[in-house]
Amino acid sequence: MREDLLGSVKGARRLKQRIGRGNSAGQGTYAGRGLKGQKSRSGKSVKRGFEGGQNRMIKGLPMKRGFTNIFKDEYILVTLDTLDKYDTGSTINSDVLRESGHIKGPIKMIKIVATGHISKAVTISAHKFTKVARERIEQAGGTAEETN
Q1: In whole angstroms, what is the distance from residue 59 CA to residue 95 CA?
Q2: Contacts with 39 (C-beta within 8 Å, 6 or more apart), sequence order
Q3: Which of 28, 78, 79, 98 satisfies CB 3.0 to 4.6 Å to 23 for a cystine?
Q4: Could you report the per-residue pLDDT of 11-45, keeping only the tens digit for each?
Q5: Beta strand 109-113 pairing with 143-146
Q6: Residues facing 112 on adjacent strands
Q7: Domains recognised in the chain with CATH numbers
């Protein structure tokens, strides 16, 4: 057998169907485009994103205000008044606050804010402290430890 005699099996390669060449050819009348409408006309290509004359979604986006950062760090705020309820010399962390009911919900980071005053010397470990809260805790004789 020679290479020049090799060919496709009969029926393996079919001819492309010629559309719009009369009803006897098999794809006449509407030529597979249906009746009327924009897509039935010649030169029927529609731009990507075209929505039938309605203002495109991409044109409406500038009017949508705002942005939600999905990587935002969320803190539970704990005030100095809350910390003043604990005994002098005690160590306060997220577990202690959760057990006492001062923190509820899913586990998040804790930030101590300077709302109110603290008069007891306590050791507080939290993820963040405001500058004024740290100063007030240290004035009362306590310590503020930042955890990761």
Answers
A1: 50
A2: 33, 46
A3: 28
A4: 899 888 888 888 888 888 988 888 988 888 888 78
A5: unpaired
A6: 78, 129
A7: 18-66 (no CATH), 75-146 (3.100.10.10)
